Amino acid sequence: MKVVKFGGSSLADAKQIKKVCSIILSDSQRRIVVVSAPGKRYDTDTKVTDLLIRLAKACQEGSGVEAALEAVLERYAGIAKDLNLGREIVCTIKNDLISRMHTNCRNYEMFEDLMKAAGEDNSAKLIACYLQSIGENAEYIDPKEAGMFLSSEFGNAQVLPHSYELLAKLAERQTIMIFPGFFGYAEDGSVVTFSRGGSDVTGGVLAAAVNADVYENFTDVDFVYAANPKLIDNPFPIPLFTYEEMRELSYAGFSVLHEEALAPVYQKGIPVNIRNTNNPDAPGTFIVPDKKAPKPTLPVAGIAADTGFLTIHIYKYMMNRLIGYARKLLSVLEEEEVSFEHMPSGIDSISLIIREKNCPPEKLARILKKYEQLDADSVTVDQDQAIVMLVGRGMTKTVGVATRATAAFAKANINIRMINQGSSEVSIMFGVEAKDAKPSVVALYNEFFN
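The chain above was modelled as a monomer; its predicted structure follows.
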């Protein structure tokens, strides 16, 4: 059995949906299909998820509601019309949206998740309806009935362990199952979503639950490339990554796959195949367990950069002789419910790299005050920071990778603020100013791939 996921660009209009259905029907093993909300039809278009966020805000503010609702309905109605579907499915979608708009929620985050989830939910209903209209044995799967239960973290939910046993029963069905991505249900019955792009996570969870042979993730590129094609012209295609390599790249801004999508399949050793809806015959890129990966031919497999970080620098003379000092620093983050991304250190200093979105100004101020109370000699903060990741299994057997990388930064006149490399040697992290993120990717790509 294969679990297949289609992204928003693959479902943006009726023409794309027909391509998707053709791909589904070309392989009888493609029985569980995860769908996103319709994406952009052209560069200046608006994704349905963003239209739904606007609708949620309009409802909250009490103005512009009709126009916002009409914008969402127009997208679905246009797709339904071009698929020669009757008005019934459009009425179903309209009634669903109105019902959500009038649901009493205890806070705005809960309401926004409820509204955002309508994108995937109604996309799944529409695609199941189309497949049924052309005589296929397809059905819409309700995530609640199937058992997709998540933590009560609005906009950033995690799958609950007992969901896997419930979802495993889907393997017993003989239909083509159209499953909406991106959301599930908390234990109290409220709708909760994964973080943005979370349909990838839904696919990974389902693949693990039914022990799929492969998780196919269809998007709009033939391969995963060594760097962002928006930054590099005709970047080098990479036919195979390991889980660890892709995890590092996804974390650092690779937009092809959600960074949390690999966790469920990693546990089961299920390969992931990134493929192109618009060129389904292309083999795409495989993501496999380390033990199944052939010996790398290049030292570097990919380069990625992400902005939106801050760094807290704590300096304390003789820190290395103070037992438990690092624990005290991390305990402060735990108290404030802030996670850190990296922790480069010296004998007298520790730097904590944190995503800015997780550490708003008032929370940051409390953290700094607590650090000063720990008798640090100095506590400083650098904001508007970026991380650049150089990733590849081949680095472990190659001399001089770090030297070449730092030389590339110097040649491009980019100041490296920090360097961090784990013991696995699969990646090297460079800290730079946010303004240098894109030039850093270009400089490293030119060094290792041109």
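The domain at 302-448 is CATH 3.30.2130.10 (VC0802-like).
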